Amino acid sequence: MVYKQKRNRKKQLYPELEKKNIININGGESIVCPQCNEKTLRSKVKPDRGCRNDMQSLTVCCALCGWNGPLKNYEAHLGEKHPNPMCEFCHATYPSVIDLNEHVSYQCPEVLVHCPLEVFGCEDNIRRTDLSKHYSTGRHQRILINVVPSREFQSSNSIVRRNELEESLDVLSTVIQQANEDQGHLRNECRENERNLEALLQDLSVSRKSVEEEFVFLQKLVNDQQISQCDIVSIQQKLHDMKSPSSDGTLIWRITDVKQKIEDAKSNVQPSILSPVFYSSPTGYKICLCLHPNGNDSAQHTHMSLYFVLMRGEYDSILTFPFCFKMIFCLIDQTGKQQHIFDVLEPDLSSSSYQRPQSEKNTPIGFIKFVPLRILQQGNNAYVRNDTMFIKAMIDFTNHPKEILSYVLNISPGMTAVAQHAMIEEERRVHQQRSVSK
Q: Which of 26, 98, 142, 342 minimizes the number of CB atoms within 10 Å of its CB?
């Protein structure tokens, strides 16, 4: 019987088939295992059903013809096509292929077999019936003489090797015992480290919670500080407003730390500042100015923005609204050259900025581009000296002609309001006479 497929699988699962180590369970009370040479009672030997099932699915080729198919069908094929197979070596017939295979493997005198000393150099193929004669040949005897001493030497070496192996095993046993002890120590250390790690994690959790609480507390402090800062600014503004406010419709606003105020506006710390409050009269309109040092909206970083702010006052209920007077704004030249920068804000009576205030103050209105920053940032300019500048605001009660505005703004603020008014009226009269004479 020759297998057609899965030869490697046959070698792995059933090496006894390849070596022909088949247990003969017919005859004898005991059986010798071809693998381990252990004797077993014949009655104890059981067929391997799993092996049998695997074998039945193998594809085989008939040794006597060209048929191939599953092993489970092979016996039927032999019974049908080959009822009395013949040995190809001695031409004897047998009732079954199993008997034929056993005959060829162990009994047929005409089969060519290998000499048992093939691995030692005796490579002759001899008929089974001539093996006894072959054993007597000079070639076989010479090989046998060479083999026997070599095997004895190998046996002696095996004893020495066995002693060496036993010594190695003793050493390995000691090493393994020490390794087991070390493993125990390491296991204990790991457990201790795990306990320490758990304790550290708990401490970390507590610390993290504490840090989070501290962070929340610090945030609250920062917020409280910001609120306090705003309160301080508000209080400072109120104190500033309480300092003998002007009540003749004129304000000269002294602004210090100009560079810092511009920087604060750039960083949005304080985008705008308010002037001290002033009044149109002791019982008149309440007014202040609003300055954006770094500009407002589209004028940011290019101009200062200046606005008029009408505030809710104590006498609003007896005043006339909307506020209908011009406002004159002037950035004063501190060099004495009287090159003031000024502009006039005409009232827009329809704007809510001029109506009676319903809240603390109305919406600011004025000049988004009052003065270019580049002028103020020039070294030794006429308007910022010792990091201080002055802005003058006037209510134009009498509608001054544009031609005398420069004269009005150049009057020394050291004079009394009455004296200033008299000088303005005289200049106004002179201007009218000149106009008539022309």
A: 26
With respect to residue 152, please indicate whether it lies within any of the assigned structural domains: no
| Spatial distance between the Cα atoms of 362 and 321, rounded to a whole number of angstroms | 13
Tens-place pLDDT, residues 352-386: 999 999 999 999 999 999 999 999 999 899 999 99
Q: Where does a domain end: 76, 95, 110?
A: 110
Q: How confident is the model at residue 309, as a pLDDT?
A: 97
Nearest to 43 by CA among 30, 53, 59: 30
Distance CA 434, CA 36 (A): 146
Q: Are 333 and 290 in contact (CB under 8 A)?
A: no
pTM: 0.47
Q: Is residue 282 part of a domain?
A: yes
For 255-264, write each residue's pLDDT tens digit. 999 999 999 9
Q: Which residue has the tokens 């949005």?
A: 268
Q: Note down the domain range covering 353.
A: 245-397
Query: What Cα–Cα distance (Å) separates residue 390 from each residue in 119, 290, 382?
Result: 122, 14, 11
Q: Which residues of 137-167 are buried (b: 16+ CB within 10 A; e: fewer)?
A: eeebeebeeeeeeeeeeeeeeeeeeeeeeee
User: Which of 361, 378, 397 is where one domain is finished?
Assistant: 397
- Same domain for 249 and 106? no
Q: Kindly report the CATH number assigned to the domain that includes residue 281.
A: 2.60.210.10
Would you say residue 133 lies in a domain?
A: no
Residue matched to tokens 């419709």: 249
Residue type, 53: N
In a domain, 229, yes or no: no
* Total of domains in the chain: 2
Specify the pLDDT at position 4: 34
